[in-house]
Amino acid sequence: MNKNNDDQALCGLSQEQLDAHWMPYSGNREFKKDPRLIVSAKGNYYTSADGRKIFDGLSGLWTCGAGHSRPEIIEAVSRQVKELDYSPAFQYGHPKSFELAHRITELMPEGLNRVFFTGSGSESVETALKVARAYWRKKGQASKTRFIGRVKGYHGVNWGGVSVGGIVGNRALYGQGIDAVHLPHTMLPENLFSKGMPETGAHLADELEAMLALHDASNIAAVIVEPLAGSAGVIPPPVGYLKRLREICDKHNILLIFDEVITGFGRMGSNTGAEEFGVVPDMMTIAKQLTNGVIPMGAMVAKQEIYDTFMEAGGAEYMLELPHGYTYSAHPVACAAGLASLDILAQDKLVERVKTVSPQFQEMLHSLKGTKYVSDIRNYGLAGALTIESAPGEPALRPFQIAMKCWEKGFYVRCGGDTIQLGLPFTVENAEIDNVINALGESINELA
Ligand code: PMP
To answer: Which residues constitute the signal peptide according to the record (predicted)?
Structure first.
């Protein structure tokens, strides 16, 4: 039964309708007793079904950095639907996919210049993992099949992504995936409450050497990491860590994949984490901010040498070089949204804006140090998180309760595991930074 009997708050939905939708990454039983429905969005705010303005403290799901309902994207998408609503993804093309691919390469670090479109971050990860294995086969090194991920890594929910991922709760229920082993995470006790990149931890990359000694590089296809781990609760890389990973991968002839589904297109104050941290991977996965979240779309961006390895494979030209792709790869409406979204980032100088406003975000977020239950605070760019001490025997309860209190106060923040996560819109105003952190602090204090 619904606790909330207000018909407006339920948008007239019946219990049967609520039950029909098996919601993703949600406590379905809890939600359906007391639904939190969102009916519209504009700028940095949602409107809830009960008529309240809710500040979007996670930019959707790290998707909508340019703010909601941007007229330029609405216009581009509407035009595209009228002109070409769908076009076959295989063996035929439409101009916008080539335009968008080229535009993306302009925002990539040098060398990453071949773009394979997908429908999501998870599909981008699967694409990168499959390409890595196929690449080594093409090179005559078919034994290179195993992957190295990292504890606390998140790479989406498909089989490959779950296998290389390192969030226990996402793996436990599913059993055997693909062959993957994991580097340790980089959260060290001496780095608690670090601002930006922690000083200590580059040595943890040397664990890769130890793993290669055990598994042998001849069996390893690729290492995959998020430059900044997002879903586990915003874990910036220690100074020097990513560079060291790159050196070890080069030394042992292993591909390095950066999963930049969250960090791509501005969140760190740079176009990519690779640019921000000065380390170029062999492949990069992107999604989310690519279309400002308006239409689902992802991509895997590869170095030309990887692409060329497939193109030079021999055989008749009409043969597929890579038997892989999705019905919705390079969807024309998604491409239109992507082009409009990247235009906005450039025209409004939003990536630069992240750099300008993030010091205030850092200062405000770290002002919560000393608040009860807050055992760590981490941040980079416009991403930040708190670790919340667990209630005895009830992991993840307090973060959920805190997020719900924020929601009641008109602020959407994310609870994930033992963390509260913030990913502010790039368009955030100074007062909004203060407001959301103050509301978060009050919510924690009320719980205490
Ligand atoms: N990789 C990373 C780093 C992500 O943060 C996410 C989504 N949070 C994904 C992959 C999966 O993306 P999607 O949910 O679009 O499949």
So the answer is: none
**How many C-beta atoms surround the C-beta of residue 114 within 10 A?**
19
Q: Are residues 43 and 92 in the same domain?
A: no
Q: List pLDDT tens digits, range 415-435.
A: 999 999 999 999 999 999 999
For residue range 351-387, what is the model confidence (pLDDT) as tens digits?
Answer: 999 999 999 999 999 999 999 999 999 999 999 999 9
Same domain, 335 and 407: no
Any ligand 1 atom below 6 A from CB of 261: yes
Tell me how far the alpha carbon of residue 291 lies from the centroid of ligand 1, in angstroms: 14
Q: 100-105 contacts: CB < 8 A, separation 24 or more? A: 100/330, 100/335, 100/338, 100/339, 100/342, 101/299, 103/338, 103/339, 103/342, 104/286, 104/290, 104/299, 104/301, 104/338, 104/342, 105/301
Distance, CA of 409 to CA of 436 (rounded, Å): 10
Question: How many residues does this entry show for the chain?
Answer: 448
Does residue 226's CB lie within 6 angstroms of at least one atom of ligand 1? yes
Where would I find the H helices in 185-240?
207-215
126 lines ligand 1 (CB under 6 A): no
What is the rounded distance in angstroms from the CA atom of residue 153 to the CA atom of residue 156? 10
CA 157 to ligand 1 centroid distance, Å: 8
- Domain with 383 in it: what CATH number? 3.90.1150.10
Residue range of the domain that includes 378: 36-66+349-447
User: What is the Cα gyration radius of the chain?
Assistant: 22
On the question of pLDDT at 314 being above 50, the answer is: yes
Distance 242 CA to ligand 1 centre (A): 20
Ligand 1 within 6 A of CB of 297: no
- Whether 122 lines ligand 1, by a CB cut-off of 6 Å, is yes
What ipTM is given for this predicted complex? 0.99
